[in-house]
Write a structure and sequence with these properties.
It is built from 9 helices and 18 strands. It has about 350 residues and is α/β, with parallel strands linked by helices. The chain has an 8-stranded mixed β-sheet with strand order 6-18-17-10-11-12-15-9. The protein has a 6-stranded mixed β-sheet with strand order 2-1-3-4-5-16, sandwiched between helices. A two-stranded antiparallel sheet has the order 7-8. It is globular. Keywords: Hydrolase.
């Protein structure tokens, strides 16, 4: 596994928009404030041409121009790392315009984002054997004040901290909108981990995963390198971290079935399942827990659900591709990542 150099003190953070840019509110104002916060911390900034674009369909610009920006900024020596401006809908359409052969031989660089950015965080790891960070997008850092998870993310990006912990409370309904673009998380819900089996546990393996909506879209295409990745790291095994955006509980169940029958879960050591954005839904007796467990329980490995990953923040930043040890003690979750 190739690991990038961490963001140095007073280094340059690059920003790209291969998914949505920050062209509309509340994202534009939040992104501007995030830039101020980073410059106040001493960092320099390197903004790509699509950061404020909104002319694309489901992404910031045309697939060709989004791919061009990402290729250029990833290979550039003007910035030390890249943070995606935001998530979106159709980042998958840039992939045919990317040159993963070049990226595999380019100097590794941290790329951070989540949701639609799974299309790059996941493929950097599975196709290029390069670690990435599944974590918050740029506009999130505009909130006042920063939540602890954002400070954890910066400490991870700078290499100061390689272990992350779950948080006490989470947000089910955001207060961030056009009239309140810098709103902090609305932490109304108490975190309750669901553990299957319901016992303290510890397990290790390579972290791999992202947004299931995107993952099943990649499955079976020319960009699906999961089998080769799993085989390469079979001695370590894989810890899958998975979370969902638009999928209802039946779609989650179908997605789990599809990944299982594609052989993606070979050599699995455990699962970390984030809270789905469609939270608390039940259809025909199927809830978010049965949707997952009905497929995954056959592997007889720990399944930890309602973890702080994904669309219902806060989220723990995770290094995709790292060798990690997950510890669960009652309602507390920690992930210790090693660059091996």
């Amino acid at each position: 596994m190739r690991y990038p150099k961490f963001l140095p003190k007073n280094g340059t953070i690059g920003f790209v928009a291969p998914s949505f840019g920050c062209s509309t509110e509340p994202y534009r104002t939040a992104f501007l404030n995030a830039q101020k916060k980073w410059t106040d911390l001493g960092y320099r900034l390197d903004l790509g041409p699509n950061c404020y674009e909104g002319s694309g369909i489901g992404i910031s610009n045309t697939p060709e121009l989004c791919a061009q920006e990402l290729m250029e900024y990833y290979q550039s020596d003007r910035n030390a790392c890249l943070i995606s401006c935001g998530g979106g809908e159709l980042m998958c359409e840039i992939l045919e315009h990317m040159d993963f052969g070049k990226l595999k031989t380019a100097a590794p660089k941290w790329y951070m984002g989540y949701s639609d950015n799974t299309n790059f965080t996941f493929l950097l790891t599975t196709l290029c054997d390069t670690a990435s960070i599944y974590g918050p997008c740029a506009a999130t850092f505009g909130m006042e004040p920063w939540h602890e998870s954002l400070m954890d993310t910066m400490r991870l990006l700078t290499g100061e901290q390689l272990e992350v912990y779950g948080y006490d409370r989470w947000e089910i309904e955001s207060r961030k909108d056009e009239t309140n673009p810098l709103a902090p998380y609305n932490l109304t819900e108490q975190k309750i981990l669901r553990r299957f089996p319901d016992q303290d546990t510890e397990f290790s393996g390579r972290l791999l995963g992202g947004c299931v909506d995107c993952l099943v879209n990649l499955l079976g295409t020319e960009f699906d390198g999961v089998q080769a990745f799993a085989e390469k790291y079979r001695e370590d095994g894989v810890i899958w971290f998975l979370e969902c955006c638009d999928l209802n509980v039946m779609a989650i169940r179908r997605a789990m079935w599809q990944m299982e029958h594609a052989g993606w879960f070979r050599f699995v050591k455990g699962f970390l399942i984030g809270r789905p954005a469609v939270y608390g839904q039940e259809i025909m007796g199927m809830d978010q827990y049965r949707a997952v467990l009905g497929i995954l329980e056959q592997y007889h490995v720990p399944v930890i659900m309602d973890a702080d990953i994904g669309h219902l923040p806060p989220m723990m930043p995770l290094i995709t591709g790292s060798l990690a040890t997950v510890s669960v003690r009652e309602n507390e979750l920690s992930v210790r990542m090693r660059m091996e």
